[in-house]
Amino acid sequence: MMHTLSYTLRRLGPVLALGFVLAGCHSSGSSISINSDSDGYKALVAGDYAKSRSEFEPMLAKTSHDPYVELDLAVAYQGLGRMDLAEPLYRQAMIDGKDVHPAVAQFARDQGKSIAEVGCENIEIANHTNNCDVAPPPQPAMPPPVKNFIVFFDFNRSDLTGEAQSIVAEAIKAAKTQGAAHITVTGHTDTVGSDRYNEALAMRRASAVKDALVAGGIDAAGISTDGRGFHDLLVQTGPGVREPRNRRAVIDLGGQ
Questions:
Q1: Which of 1, 52, 98, 248 has the most CB atoms within 10 Å of its CB?
Q2: What pTM, to 2 d.p., does this model score?
Q3: Mind listing the pLDDT tens digit for each residue in 38-68?
């Protein structure tokens, strides 16, 4: 199987000159063949970038991570003045073609260069710079780890519902993944009942969550519990109000 690798070579005044590389068999398992007799290659040599684009786009759709196809299509885009489409393909070819070296280059000075180096040169030419970053594009920033989980309770109860058990399971998984050194569980109540009763109920809720965490493999010595009663409401209400969102326990994986 023969593959043709195309790339921009240099600028001669206002005219963009193109060079081409004829490469040997591609070892990545691609089923796409681009040879010197293909219509896309001939169009690229002739400077018919619209034609070469129409030939290479279906090829790219049929293959996955073929640096030859990526680079040839990028050249076509660049020739059409669409560097916004060309550069992402060049950069993908730089990743996929990092260790792929064409067998034959049209110009001696390009012998031995990898597809990544050729793609980098094209970006430099288009952007008028000598500082192309060959490294893969930066990955999106990872979201910050989840540190707080809220478990809700039925009225005047401290046992865990099925939904609450699922939340505790998520907290256990996160604690193990993040390596939480210390966990604080704080129980809360709504405003029905006396201060003293609700502080005790809040503590029972915190203890129930701690027991579930320990049952899930978290070291009991690394868990602190506290009961706040109705002194730290999630939803502000008056006295004697059954507010489900206030009947809760908060699991803090960043507690000290």
A1: 52
A2: 0.47
A3: 787 788 777 888 888 888 888 888 777 888 8
Q: Which two tokens stand for residue 198?
A: 């609700």
240-245 long-range contacts (CB < 8 A, ≥24 apart) are: 240/191, 240/192, 241/190, 241/191, 241/192, 242/155, 242/190, 242/192, 243/190, 243/191, 244/152, 244/155, 244/190, 245/152
pLDDT tens per residue across span 196-228: 999 999 999 999 999 999 999 999 999 999 999
Q: Which two tokens stand for residue 221?
A: 């010595």
Mean pLDDT of the chain: 79
Give CA–CA dist 31/47, Å, rounded: 26
Sheet holding 183-187, edge to edge: 148-152, 248-252, 183-187, 223-227
Rounded to the nearest 10 degrees, what angle do helices 67-79 and 115-127 cross at? 20
- pLDDT mean over 17-35: 42
In eight-state DSSP terms, residue 85 is H
Count of Cβ atoms closer than 10 Å to residue 125 Cβ: 18
Written as one letter, the residue type at 27 is S
**Residue count of the chain:** 256
Cβ(50)–Cβ(80) under 8 Å? Answer: yes
